Amino acid sequence: MHLATIAYDNVLKKHQVIFPPEQQDWFRQILRLIALTHDLGHPPFSHASEGVLPVGLEHEDFTEKVIKETIIGEYINEIGVIYTKKYGQEYNITPDLICDIYQGRVKDKNLIFLKKFMDSELDVDKMDYLLRDSLYCGVSYGKYDLDRLISSLTIYFQNGPRLAIDKGGMHVTEAFILARYFMFTQVYFHRTRRLYDLMLTNFLKEILPNGTYPDDINEFLSYNDNIVWELMVREKENSEWAQRIIHRDLISIVDESPPHSDDKDKKIYNMIGREIERECGKENIIIDSPSKLPHKIPTRVEVDDEKAIPIIRKISSLPTSLSDESEIIKNLTKPINIIRIYAKKDVYDKAKKIYEERQRDALGL
Ligand SMILES: Nc1nc2c(ncn2[C@H]2C[C@H](O)[C@@H](COP(=O)(O)OP(=O)(O)OP(=O)(O)O)O2)c(=O)[nH]1
């Protein structure tokens, strides 16, 4: 919320004539609420236990439930009342409005623009999580110059307002995109880190009624990180997965694909993985396939932000894609696609042997 506010204020300050003052204030409040609430629906340990959300529901659906079905909705309505008193009925703010924008159900181009601060190639969510995760994981990846990036943000118009970076922002944007790339390849998708997600998922599948979190929002909210830790400690004598997590008893990796495996690689790894599962027992093997789309290429426009050029002049400058100018960004367009096969100790040698034989067959050796 803090970063979204700075980014919004900064962009609007550069181009004062975009919205009338009351609309500018209203949009700002809406954006702050979206930023504050957008991740409320994450289950315990966030992405790590998404695999046990009820079928057909994503964490975004739980965010919507939290906003609409808990006291959070009442707080939002209270803010709405303040805004209607200040500016009139058309400036209401409701839980429905917040969810419609967040879930991409609005047609208004200005509201779509607002969402871009939270979900786009230049969103402050990424700006936040990269630096936060880098700090808490104690790694040097993920770093870039946040102040510079935010002050490079600007607007251009193409069928409504759009976020872009200005002419001085190219290198900081390169650093930002590389930061995301390294955090995914080196941290989020690290083989041991991913294994903890998988072991946690397996534990939760065993322990939760029906193997999933409940879809009732109040029951869902009764689970948090501490409760899950407690369950793990309580169940450690009964659950292999709880025991493994608590004692750091990891499962070794038989092999993994390159970070940008293509369809052919994926097919080979999957085929070999399934055979290993059949031969060694499904319960002894874990196959993981983390993937991430490449960073969407940001747009760059020629704006001299020092002078706060009015919007009319700014529109005349043509937007260009950063990939036209940056050799680094041009070459970071492949999705990350990794496939890994893990095997428990008792079957490890057998699994490795099958893997090596099949790899040789696949390569025609
Ligand atoms: N436990 C766990 N966390 C992950 C994984 N992948 C990403 N994360 C963490 C890293 C960040 O703190 C946060 C980013 O979440 P997402 O990738 O869902 O964000 P988003 O789709 O907005 O990112 P993007 O726009 O693609 O950069 O989640 C994963 O496989 N397991």
TrEMBL record:
CDD domains linked to this entry: HDc
Entry-linked InterPro entries: dGTPase-like (IPR050135), HD/PDEase_dom (IPR003607), HD_assoc_2 (IPR045509)
Protein's UniProt keywords contain Hydrolase: yes
Keyword annotations: Hydrolase
One example GO MF annotation: dGTPase activity
Limits of the HD-associated domain: 145-327
GO biological process: dGTP catabolic process
Keyword match Hydrolase: yes
Protein's name in the database: Deoxyguanosinetriphosphate triphosphohydrolase
Source taxonomy: Bacteria, Bacillati, Bacillota, Clostridia, Eubacteriales
